[in-house]
Design goal:
By secondary structure, this protein is of the alpha/beta class. The chain folds into 2 domains: 341 residues, 3-Layer(aba) Sandwich (Rossmann fold); 86 residues, ANL, C-terminal domain (GMP Synthetase, Chain A, domain 3, 2-Layer Sandwich), CATH 3.30.300.30. The chain is built from 14 helices and 20 strands. The model has no long low-confidence stretch (mean pLDDT 87).
Length: 438
Amino acid sequence: MIRNRVYGALLRLKGSSPHREYDQIRDALAGEEPLQICKSYLGLILQHAYRNVPYYAKALLPVCAGHEARLDNFERIPILTKSIIRQMQSELVSRDINHRRWHYNTSGGSTGEPVRLIQDRMSDKWTNLTTKYYYEDMIGINELAAKKIIIWGSEREITNHKFALRARTLDWLKNTASMNSFRMNRTDMEKHIRVINTRKPDLIRGYADSLYQISRYIAKRGLNVHSPKVIVSAAEKLGKDRRQTIEAVFGTRVYDFYGSREVDGIAGECNCRMMHIFMFNNYVEVQPEPTASETGRVIVTTLHNYSMPLIRYDIGDTATLGPGHCECGNPLPTLAEVTGRVTDHFLTDEGTLVHGEYFTHLFYFRDWVRSFQVIQEDLRRVRILIVAQNPNQGEMNDISSKIRLVMGSECDVIWEIVDEIPESPSGKHLYTKSLVSR
């Protein structure tokens, strides 16, 4: 298809086309242990970080003091946290960054503590490679060429029409129709279902809860909906109940994909419902808690972002290790279960559902924000708990106005400066929470 060729040419022009590396990874996985492939990339980025990133000159001494990285000492490297990234941001950037094509990104804020990051075209290339490998090699669909519907959230599509035009152009090139799930009232739901039935996609991808809410709407009203070849859930924990509802309504298999904005693709579900870790993209550790043997915190080391390497980074999730061998035949190691990010939809007094991720996006690139939590106390009142350094009143007003844009002009937005955000009973920092009963 011409549009796919144009998009492929754009990726090559940007330096983020993964085709050569993709063939190399497929050949390597066919002939080597995945961990050995990972270790070769790991050694390279550790040596680069030790020599070029000020923070790691000390942190990597146990591993990189010699001519080669001593991976047997890897666990002596201190854990990297969001707090450290904030405190040491400039010290975590490679000295040779001006020789790389880089851009800013930010963590997703799933723990209510977003941080600003730098990523480069090399890491973008490996993100594209991971996507290609997962769809083509693990679930059997050509993601680039497939007719797709993406049920995703974009705060900028609501507030920035110029950005929306650019996004629609990229969607056309990728044979994609995007549906914004940050705001879903009855009209939106009907429109989404109409697009699905008209377009008849091979693939639907979206937030777990957005897919679930649309499925519930279809089921309650006894509507008919097109059944795609594949549905992929991402960005949130899928959960058994959500999975069952989505699969029953759409009559097709749902696959779970695990990643984050900081490190991109981490693991993807296979036909045997095991999560295979993309060890060629990230080196993943599950660090057991003192009282558990197989369940622990997910610690990730990026293997291809040389502009701002994240080494032994605690992303704030927990997971349970799976068996070393999966019946599907894929050689990549597995996770049996991931405790992912938790979000809530907010409900307006008009019955519109607003995805919790919408509020999270409003805090991106606000460097004065240390942590936050957005709480819907009733239909017309939203409270924001915030830990901040020199609060920016102008940006606070901007956030308030954008909340009223989706929650209604009469919504009372209350800001509360606090010393810390209270944890949930599970120990996670929920960044959005709705107290409104459905």
